[in-house]
Design goal:
With 78 residues, the protein is mainly β. The protein has no helices and 6 strands. The protein starts with a strand and ends in a 7-residue tail after the last strand.
Length: 78
């Protein structure tokens, strides 16, 4: 599987720094929800991209074909 985030028309592969992927669908609402965790470290230059994520960025999950495409609605940090 591959997870990309599109921000300002630039796609970034974040597969290696993500975990806890959860894709759920609902026939009642004809919708889908996708949640995931992503590594963050303010001191690691290779992870600085994660500090720029914001609602409105596009998320694309693929596995030979596109499984999910959606927009980040909320971001929770801990």
């Amino acid at each position: 599987m591959r997870l990309d985030i599109v921000k300002n028309s630039k796609s970034t592969n974040v597969t290696d720094i993500t975990g806890s992927l959860n894709l759920s669908t609902s026939i009642e609402t004809l919708g889908a929800s996708f949640t995931f965790n992503i590594a963050r470290n303010h001191y690691d230059p290779s992870l600085r991209f994660t500090d720029t994520l914001e609602p409105g960025d596009i998320v694309i999950l693929t596995n030979k074909k596109e499984l999910f495409r959606g927009i980040i609605v909320t971001i929770n940090t801990s």
